[in-house]
């Protein structure tokens, strides 16, 4: 049963040419809305968030999610850095595109030089997902077959999106496998909280806090396996920093590393970043 003020609407977001079946497939778009006029739009291509419209402190609404207005942008790999999509079977990089499970070595696709990135040439972000609306939630599901991009075992993955009347966008991801296999899912949304069209000048005014006392150094964005303290480095965001004061000191003029979020024992939900 739908909660008061919350609703889900469905319409079309164009078509996608499915090379595996050589047919054009309709792309479905789902709009989640609450009683505060906040809305989120997700398409079943990559289970991708395309819009997040929220008010600022003055009540002015803007789309704070980076993305495209049509399917054309999402299907051009050279202009789409995984905007808003579910990334898998393994997000981030696998060094030398190989790993070992139970003494057996598997070779996955090399789509990032000698490494494997974000699930390969056609990861979960480039797949058509099944979609099912249950009340005010939308669940997207996809079956990754045994051997896809070199991974062992079939995987049934599901991503459920919901929007609350407290303006919370909730995402729950699950996976069930037929063989031991690495699974590391994420949503790859990009944000500009001033509005997606406000650019660098507004982005530099953002204040950022990351609840992480350690980070993982990398070479060419591939973690070395070290875990180092952020204290005394440009990666120390345990106290709030304004981006314009720190970005020029970061490698490649930006943060693109893994932070080790501080956790509790036993594990509970904790703040990751603000």
From TrEMBL:
Catalysed reaction equations from the record: alpha-D-galactose = beta-D-galactose
Pathway: Carbohydrate metabolism; galactose metabolism
Biological process annotations from GO: galactose catabolic process via UDP-galactose, Leloir pathway; glucose metabolic process
Family annotation (InterPro entries): Ald1_epimerase_CS (IPR018052), Aldose_1/G6P_1-epimerase (IPR008183), Gal_mutarotase_sf_dom (IPR011013), Galactose_mutarotase-like (IPR047215), GH-type_carb-bd (IPR014718)
One Pfam family from the record: Aldose_epim
Gene Ontology molecular function: any one: carbohydrate binding
Keywords of the record: Carbohydrate metabolism, Isomerase
Similarity-based family: Belongs to the aldose epimerase family.
Function of the molecule: Mutarotase that catalyzes the interconversion of beta-D-galactose and alpha-D-galactose during galactose metabolism. Beta-D-galactose is metabolized in the liver into glucose 1-phosphate, the primary metabolic fuel, by the action of four enzymes that constitute the Leloir pathway: GALM, GALK1 (galactokinase), GALT (galactose-1-phosphate uridylyltransferase) and GALE (UDP-galactose-4'-epimerase). Involved in the maintenance of the equilibrium between the beta- and alpha-anomers of galactose, therefore ensuring a sufficient supply of the alpha-anomer for GALK1.
UniProt name for this protein: Galactose mutarotase
């Amino acid at each position: 049963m739908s909660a008061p003020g919350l609703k889900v609407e469905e319409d079309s977001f164009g078509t996608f040419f499915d090379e595996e079946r050589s047919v054009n497939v309709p792309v479905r778009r789902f709009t989640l809305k609450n009683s505060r006029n906040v809305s989120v739009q997700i398409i079943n291509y990559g289970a991708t968030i395309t819009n997040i419209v929220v008010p600022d402190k003055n009540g002015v609404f803007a789309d704070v999610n980076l993305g495209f207005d049509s399917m054309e942008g999402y299907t051009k790999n050279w202009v789409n850095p995984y905007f808003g999509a579910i990334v898998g079977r393994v997000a981030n990089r696998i060094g030398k595109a190989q790993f070992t499970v139970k003494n057996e070595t598997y070779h996955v696709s090399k789509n990032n030089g000698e490494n494997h990135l974000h699930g390969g040439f056609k990861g979960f972000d480039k797949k058509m997902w099944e979609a099912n609306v249950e009340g005010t939630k939308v669940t997207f599901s996809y079956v990754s077959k045994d051997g896809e991009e070199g991974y062992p075992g079939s995987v049934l993955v599901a991503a459920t999106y919901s929007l609350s009347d407290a303006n919370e966008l909730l995402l729950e991801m699950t996976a069930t496998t037929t063989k031991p296999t690495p699974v590391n899912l994420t949503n790859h949304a990009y944000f500009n909280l001033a509005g997606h069209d406000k650019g660098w000048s507004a982005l530099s005014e953002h204040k950022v806090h990351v609840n992480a006392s350690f980070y993982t150094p990398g070479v060419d964005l591939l973690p070395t396996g070290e875990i180092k303290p952020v204290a005394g480095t440009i990666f120390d965001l345990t106290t709030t920093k304004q981006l314009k004061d720190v970005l020029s000191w970061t490698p490649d003029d930006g943060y693109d590393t893994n932070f080790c979020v501080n956790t509790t024992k036993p594990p509970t939900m904790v703040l990751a970043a603000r």
